[in-house]
Fold these 3 entries.
Entry 1:
Amino acid sequence: MKIAVIGFVGLIVLLASQLGSLGAADNKLLIAHGAISNNVEPLWIAKEQGMFRKYGIDADLIFIIAGRAMQAMLAGQVPVGFVGGTHVVNANTGGGDFAMILGLENRLDYLFLGKPSIKSAEDLKGKKVGIGTPAGSASLATYVALDHLGLVPRRDNIVLLGIGGVPERMAALRSGSVDATSLSPEIGQQVLGEGYRVLVDLGKENVEFQSSGLVVSRALIKSNPGLVESVAKATVEGVAFIHKPSNKEIVLKSLGRNLRLSKPEQMEKAYQGLVAALPKRPCPSIEGMTAVIKLMAQHGINTKASQLKASEQLDLSFCKKFEDSGFFKSLY
C-alpha cells in the first residue's frame, strides 16, 4: 500500500485530483491521518484487509501533518480525518463544526526523550526542546512532560521549537538541533539504542487525554450518515482484527511496512504497545476531551478552548448504535 507524505504544494495538487475523482466515483473517499504512528494501524488494516471495500468504500489514505489536515477539512477538501482532539478544538473555536466519532487513543503515551548529556530536569534549563505543530498532541505531551519535571519554559529559559512531524523531530534530536523532544513510543525506541534518555514516559503516567480519533464534520453526519457509519464500522473492524491473536503476524508485517521498522524487535514493541493501548470499543472519551480543553487553555495554546463543552466536540451516537445493536460484541 502506498502512503503519501506530502508538503503544501503537493497537498493542493493531490486534493484537486481527489476532488475530481470524487465526482466520478461516489465511493472514493479521502481519509487523512495527521501522524505516522502505530495508532493509525486500524486504518491501514481496514485498507489492506478489505474492510473499507466490504462497506463499498474505496479509501485513499494519505498522511498530512495534523494541523494542515484539519485545515483541509475546514476547507471542505478532506471529508474524514484521523487527528487529535486538539485539532477538533482549534477548528471548532475557529468557526468549524466537527465531531470525533471514534477515539482510538485515549491516553498520552509519548516518550519525552533527551540527548545523552541530559540526565536531569536541571540539565534542560536553557536548552532547546522540539515540539510538533503548535496545537498538536505531541506539543501538549511536551508541556505535560515539562510540568512533570517541574520545568516552566519561560522561567527556565527553555526554547520551544516547532519542528513538525515525528520524522523531523527525530532528525532534529539526532542532529543536535534540539536537546529533547516527544516521540511516539514505537518511533522513540529507534533512538534509545543510540544513547538517548527517556526523561518522562507519559504512558506510565496514565495521563487521560483524547488523542487520535476519527473526525468528520457534523454537516457530513447530517447529509450522509450512512457513509459515516460505514467508515466507522470498517475502522472498528480493523481494531477487532488487530486484537485477534491469530492475526498477529499480519499486523506485525503491516506495522513494519507502514512505520518503516526493519528489526523484528521494533515491530514486536510497536505491536505490543498498540494492542495494550487500543480500546476494543474505540469510543471517544468525554473525560479525555475535557483534559484536552483544560490543557490547551492552561498553556495558552488556545485561549478560546475553555468556552467549549467537551461533550459537544464528540458524537457518541455511532458508538451507542454499535453497542445497542450488538455490532461491537459480534466482533469478539
Note: The chain has a mean pLDDT of 90.
Entry 2:
Amino acid sequence: MSHHFDSPTAIADGRINLCDLFVFPGVPGTTTLILTVNPDAGRSSATTFRPDALYEFVMASDGGTREDIAFRVTFTEPDNAGNQQMRVLRADGAAARQGIEGTLLGEGRTGEIFPLGVGGLAWAGLAADPFTADGIALAGFLQGLAAGRYDPGVFTSSPGNIFAGRDVTAVALQVPDADLGGTRIAVWARISLFGHAPQLQVSRIGQAMLRPLFFSPPDTESEILNAGSPETDMDAHGKRVHSIADAAARLAGLADPDAHAEHVQAAFLPDLVPYQPGQPASFQPGGGNGRALDDDAFDIAVAVLAGSTLGNASIPQPPTPEFPYLSPPIPAELPALADLFGLREHGPE
C-alpha cells in the first residue's frame, strides 16, 4: 500500500521491502528517523532483518536531490532466539552516495535501545504497522480511472484498514538536529544488497503513497524507481505520474486538467521528504514538513491526486510517549497479506 509489496523484488523478500518513512522532531533538539520494512512480518515473512542488506537514511543537507549524509544500518545473522547485532555508521560527502563504509556511531542488539554518538539513540525490532489505508477502496478507485470512470463513492464513511492488526520490522534513530547539516533538508531511505556481488540498490522511499497511486500493480518501472535516485525521478517517471493525474482531473471535471497534472507531478516527484529540523512535522506532498507517525498520509495523498478530499481512512495510532515512539507488535490471528493478495505461497522463514 504505502510501499507494501511494491515491486517484484519486494514481493520475493519482505525483509528488503521498504514500507514507510517517518521524519519528525523527537525530544527538543533532535530528529527521529523511522523506516519500516517487512509487511506482514511473522506471517508471510520473517521477523528479522536481512544480514546482507544495508538499510539507510540518506539526506541532502541543502534540500536538493543529491545526498551528502547517510546513516547506515547493518545486522548480523540472527541467533537461535531471532536476535541480531546491529551497527549504525555515518558517511558524509561523496561517500554517502555509494558504499557500505562509514564512521561507527553505535552498536547494540535488536529489541534494545542503545546510545548513538553524542545525544542520539537507536533501536530496531518488531512493531505494529503504523500505516493505515482503505486498500480496497483505493483499488476500486484506480481501477475505475483505468477504465475511464471517476467513482469517488468507493470511499465510504466506514473505511476499512487493511493493515489493522499487522506488524512490520522497523529501524528508528534519534539524531541531534545539529548533525543533519542544514536548516532545510531532504530525506529518503533506501535498501541495498552487498557482500556477494556488486552493491545493488533494491528499494527506496521518500513520499508516502507515490507507488500505490501511480505504480500499481508493481511492474518493471517499479523496479527502476526503487533502484533509482531522486535526481532522475522527474525525467524517468514524470510522464507516468502526469498521465494518471491528468486522467483523474478530466474524469472529475476539473477546470484545468493539465495544470492539475503538473501540480500533482511536482508534489510527488522527486521521491523525497522535505524537512526543517525543529519544526512540527506535517505530511503534505509538494510541501509540508517531514512526516509524523499519526499523519493521515493515505487521505492526504489521495486528495492531492483527486483535487478534493475523497478518502476517509482509519485514524493512525498516536505515537507512544518515548523513543522509538512505535506501538508494540500485535499478536492478531489474521491471514497473511501475501496470501490475500495471491503473491506467495510459503509461510514465514
Note: Residues 233-252 form the longest helix (20 residues).
Entry 3:
Amino acid sequence: MAIRTGAEGTLAVVFGSIDHIGVAVADLDAAIAIHRDTYGMPLVHRETIEAQGVEAALLDVGESHVELLAPLGDDTPVGKFLAKRGPGLHHVAYQVDDIEATLRRLRDQGLRLIDESPRTGIRQSQVAFLHPSSSGGVLTEIVQPAAVHA
C-alpha cells in the first residue's frame, strides 16, 4: 500500500483504506440483483441490524465493498434519508486499526462526531460516524473490522 504523507501541519495517515461505500436503497433485493447480476459483484454478506434500523448487504468490489442499505422503517436514519434525498450514495466508510484512538484524534482536531464512542455494525465491526459538516458534506463512517477488534 502506498502511503502519502500529509502537508506540514496536517494530519498524517488517519484512515487505512476505503472499507465500503454505503448506498441507500428502497428495494434491497432489486439493488442486490443490479450489483450482483449486472456488475458481477459477489454478494458476501446480508444482515439485519435492528439497532441501526437497516437491512444491509455487502458485495465485494476489489478489496472493498458496496454496502446496500434498506430501511426497516420510514422513521429510521436511512428511511429519512430516502424520503429526503431518494436512493443513492449514503456514506463513505474508511477502515482503521484502532477506532477508539481514531475517534480521540478526530475529536482533538475539532471534528464534529455523530458517535462519541463506537457501536456495533455489520459483521460485528465497530463503527462510528463523523458529521457531514466536518467532512466536506459527506457522511463519513470509520470502521474497525471485528477481526481487528477482537
Note: The CA atoms of residues 44 and 59 lie 6 Å apart.
